[in-house]
Design goal:
With about 575 residues, this protein is an alpha+beta fold. Among the domains are: about 5-70 and about 535-575, no CATH class; about 160-290, no CATH class. It has helices spanning about 5-30, 70-100, 110-125, 130-190, 200-215, 275-310, 380-390, 425-430, 445-450, 475-480, 495-535, 535-575, and strands at about 40-45, 60-70, 215-220, 225-230, 235-240, 240-245, 245-250, 255-260, 265-270, 325, 350-360, 365-370, 390-400, 400-410, 415-420, 435, 445. A hairpin with a 2-residue loop joins β13 (about 390-400) and β14. The relative contact order is 0.14.
Length: about 575
């Protein structure tokens, strides 16, 4: 069509095109603060020319589509680094909580209490019979035990808190996967005629970015416009319009397994292949880092208990025993004590002996060596004592499934222990200072706590059986234990604890450094994406003026064409 009517048609098409430009620009401006929104652009093309006597005659403008400004590389890189950033941010948060439990800058830290415990033994060695020094030692020991238990308890609580966040996180992952699959379906339906579902694609990318914060994923676009999303090991979370789920379960070893639930009832443990995102951080901190910290703290407490008890069990207090019961038990009194799994320190029992000293009321003593072999049982031990040691009775006392050794002196007699090279006294908990075998269970033996005279500051002379109240030989050995490399890893107890504190602090610092690194990458790719997809108000206002002026010009074209037509009609009417 040419002529005046063609001119009007060109103007009409221009009006529609420029109006669409204003509408798209308005859409951009209104979404300037919408997260994940990609700037949209109207594609204008010259309409096909029409033949005329003068050659092809232009026929105005046509709109070929509305597309979004989108950089696939920048978006994929942003999602990948968002996942890694979320992982390190979560790790840093959890590890800082753990590190706060081992804050040694405040008074009352565990390091200070460990040092104070050895100092209390040193003070007792200066005055072995002093009730004040004994009370101070008991208080220091109880504070130390409480500090161990508190930290162990808080580590458990931290693991529990993380556990409570895992299922909600998995539910969010499943929700985003279902949302992406639903958006895939909507996008397919919208784009069936070759058009672009720009806003739906933005929503899908935003869902993928949110999913990336929760778990590391890979994704790729199919020819039909859908996006498939997989975990790092290739298990699909989204495939076309279908989505699959994750779930969790607690294993027998108290770790968390993450299961991928695929088609046909397929279930795959994907825990070890998780990378990136909050979920990966939760699993690593809960089941690797905190578990290791718990083990290290327990090792420290167990070694402290074992070393102190080993010395204390061979010492003597201000008075001897009339009766004593072992604090540790076995479930089968006919089973060998050596390497007995019921005894926390059963692996430390070796072939050897310990000595029982029995004293009568006039100060006369009798010493009897009690042999320990690889096959000695609790029943054997009781039988041997009853057969070979006069004026004491050994009994295996059973309560429920717990069997303990009880030794009782005859009326007018008392007894004590010395020279245990078999570690049996320590392993059974006879004349020991501490109870328990871990940071959670450490405590002061009630026998000592209820009678401070039983704190074994001295030793019984193996030859004469004498035990002077002023003897400080055992207290000196226990005080020196703090300087000995008797702790885990061949370190002193203080150094072993400082190593644990340093390990935790370094892990938190490393997570913080990585968070800063990935934050920089996220900022970089965010800027790169925004440079392409972001809405610039200055640019949009310029476009708005441009489309407005073009619209006004197109309207003027219609006015001009109408005037031309009216002039032509008036000429024909006058003729």
């Amino acid at each position: 069509m040419s002529g005046i009517l063609g001119l009007m048609d060109i103007a009409k098409r221009a009006l529609a095109a420029e109006q669409l430009g204003v509408e798209v620009t308005s859409h951009n401006i209104s979404n300037v603060n919408t997260p994940g929104y990609s700037r949209q652009v109207v594609n204008f093309e010259t309409s096909l020319a029409l033949p005329s006597p003068f050659g092809p005659l232009g026929y105005g403008v046509q709109v070929t589509g509305i597309e979004r400004a989108f950089d696939a590389f920048a978006t994929a890189s942003l999602d990948a680094n968002t996942s890694l950033l979320a992982e390190q941010k979560s790790k840093k948060t959890y590890l800082e909580q753990v590190a706060s439990l081992f804050n040694e800058t405040d008074t009352g830290g565990l390091s200070e209490l460990i040092t104070g415990f050895w100092d209390a033994w040193s003070a007792l060695s200066d005055n072995p019979s002093g009730s004040g020094e004994r009370q101070a030692l008991l208080t220091q020991a109880e504070n130390l035990a409480d500090a161990f238990s508190f930290r162990a308890n808080q580590l458990v609580k931290t693991r529990t808190a993380i556990t409570q966040q895992i299922d909600p996180t998995i539910n969010k992952i499943n929700s985003y996967a279902a949302q992406i699959a639903e958006l895939n379906q909507k996008i397919m339906a919208t784009e069936v005629n070759g058009q672009q579902a720009n806003d739906l694609r933005d929503q899908r990318n935003a869902a993928i970015n949110s999913l990336s914060e929760l778990v590391g994923v890979h994704y790729y676009t199919s020819g039909d416009g859908t996006i498939s999303v997989t975990l790092a090991n290739g298990c699909s979370l989204v495939e076309g319009v279908n989505s699959w789920t994750l779930s969790s379960q607690v294993t027998s070893s108290d770790t968390i397994s993450i299961l991928w639930n695929g088609p046909g009832g397929t279930s795959v443990d994907v825990t070890s292949s998780l990378t990136g995102g909050n979920l990966s951080a939760m699993i690593e901190v809960r089941d690797t880092l905190i578990t290791q910290y718990q083990a290290d703290l327990d090792d420290l407490a167990k070694e402290l208990i074992g070393q102190v008890n080993s010395l204390h069990s061979q010492g003597v207090g201000l008075e001897l025993f009339s009766a004593v019961t072992s604090s540790y038990y076995v479930t089968d009194p006919t089973a060998a004590l050596m390497n007995n799994p019921d005894l926390a320190f059963g692996d430390r029992i070796t072939a050897g002996s310990f000595t029982i000293h029995v004293e009568d009321g006039s100060g006369g003593t009798t010493a009897t060596a009690i042999p320990i072999t690889a096959t000695t049982t609790l029943n054997d031990l009781a039988t041997y004592i009853n057969t070979n040691v006069a004026n004491v009775t050994a009994t295996v006392v059973t309560s429920g499934s717990e069997s303990r050794l009880e030794i009782t002196a005859a009326s007018g007699y008392t007894f004590g222990f010395s020279q245990d090279d078999s570690n049996t006294l320590m392993a059974l908990g006879l004349n020991t200072f501490f109870t328990g075998d871990s940071a959670w269970t450490i405590g002061v033996n009630d026998t000592v706590a209820n009678n401070l005279d039983f704190i074994a500051a001295g030793q019984i002379d193996p030859t004469s059986g004498a035990h002077a109240p002023g003897d400080n030989s055992n207290a000196l050995l226990l005080a020196e234990l703090g300087e000995d490399p008797a702790g885990p890893g061949g370190l002193t107890f203080s150094d072993a604890y400082q190593k644990l504190v340093t390990t935790i602090g370094l892990a938190a610092d490393e997570a913080g450094d990585k968070q800063t690194y990935y934050q920089g990458l996220v900022d970089q790719f965010t800027q790169l994406r925004d440079s392409v997809s972001g809405v610039s108000l200055d640019e949009e206002l310029t476009n708005l003026i441009k489309y407005q002026r073009a619209y006004q010009a197109a309207a003027k074209m219609i006015t001009t064409a109408d005037e031309m037509l009216q002039t032509l009609l008036s000429l024909k009417s006058g003729g």
